[in-house]
Design goal:
Elements: H1 2-9, E1 16-24, H2 28-44, E2 49-57, E3 61-69
Antiparallel strand pairs: 1-3, 2-3
Length: 70
C-alpha cells in the first residue's frame, strides 16, 4: 500500500494532496498546542498550501485539514 501511495504522489501531473488529522484533545491546553502548530504552519509556509482548516468539534475533537499544492 505504501508503494502505491508513493507512486500516486510522484505522478508528474499537477495535484492537491489532502491530509486530514483528527486529534482527541482532553484539555484546552491540548487544543491550544494544536492551534499553535497550525498557526506556525500558516505563518512560516503560507505559499506551500492551498488551504488549511482548523475545526473544534464535539467531544473535544480538533480536526485539521491541509491541502498542499504539488
Amino acid at each position: 500500500m505504501e508503494t502505491l501511495l508513493k507512486d500516486l504522489k510522484n505522478a508528474k501531473i499537477r495535484k492537491h494532496i489532502v491530509t486530514s488529522i483528527e486529534y482527541d484533545c482532553k484539555t484546552e491546553e491540548n487544543e491550544e498546542e494544536i492551534f499553535e502548530m497550525v498557526h506556525a504552519l500558516i505563518t512560516e509556509h503560507t505559499n506551500d498550501f492551498a488551504k488549511i482548516t482548523y475545526d473544534i468539534e464535539p467531544d473535544n475533537k480538533v480536526k485539521v485539514e491541509v491541502i498542499e499544492n504539488k
